[in-house]
Design a protein that fits this description.
By secondary structure, this protein is mostly helical. A hairpin with a 2-residue loop joins strand 1 and strand 2. The chain starts with 6 loop residues before the first strand and ends in a 5-residue tail after the last helix.
């Protein structure tokens, strides 16, 4: 799982802009300090999107390795029914 939350580092403490949801009380984190004068918000958003994509792909591999899959035919039938698509 990968979650990105903005925050501010001040007086030796990191204050998060929002509280993360679905995160245990003790979780491993990575902290990246950004140079305020060199932040390109578009590139930062693109980087976050890429990291979240990688995390999603990893989750898919983890589920596959754990045997949490279903036959493609079941998925196709479910999507046809959900979106009223004729087969």
């Amino acid at each position: 799982m990968l979650k990105t939350i903005e925050g501010i580092y001040q007086n030796g403490q990191i204050q998060l802009a929002t509280q993360p949801q679905d995160v245990s009380e003790q979780s491993q984190v990575l902290v990246t300090f950004l140079d305020p004068g060199k932040i390109d918000p578009i590139k930062l958003r693109q980087l976050i999107d890429r990291l979240e994509t990688i995390a999603g792909i990893q989750q898919g591999f983890d589920e596959l390795n754990a045997g949490q899959t279903r036959p493609i035919e079941n998925f196709v039938l479910e999507m046809q029914q959900k979106y009223d698509i004729s087969g």
